[in-house]
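Hey team,

Filing this mostly as a record. A colleague (T.K.) asked me to run one chain through the structure pipeline before their review meeting, and I want the input and output archived in the tracker in case anyone asks later how it was produced. No errors, nothing strange. Just documentation.

Input sequence:
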Amino acid sequence: MTKSMFSSRSFFRRQQDEHNLGWILVGMSALFITCQSLKIIPDLYEVIICNEQRTNGKVCTTSSQPVINMITRLSHLLVCFNLSANFVFYYLKGEKFRKAWIETYGNLFNLKRFVNSTLPQVSEFQLAETVNNPLSFQESRALV
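Output structure:
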């Protein structure tokens, strides 16, 4: 392989890595905002309504308001979902994370054997052909 093939391969690889990181950032940010935004409703209720009731000498509880109580419970569930969904984002879009996770925990779940048997092996020749002509890679994979 020539030096230009390696540099163009590394450029495309870096570009793909940046694209994946961008999707991880956008996806995790959207998930965070969605899951965390519901918590603001009970907080605003406590700040606005409960402070007003406290100044009048009344006791304010959210359990007396079924809608606020339901929103509080739902917001706790969404916060837990947000924490667990972060793993899914990293695993689906982060190749380095996925490889490290499989290397670390693959033996526990017998994943190393599964991953090694399903991943296509690409030779140096096939990689050079992919850089020069993307269709030749598909043709070479059909022969294997």
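Quick notes for T.K.: The chain has a mean pLDDT of 75. Residues 3-37 form the longest helix (35 residues).
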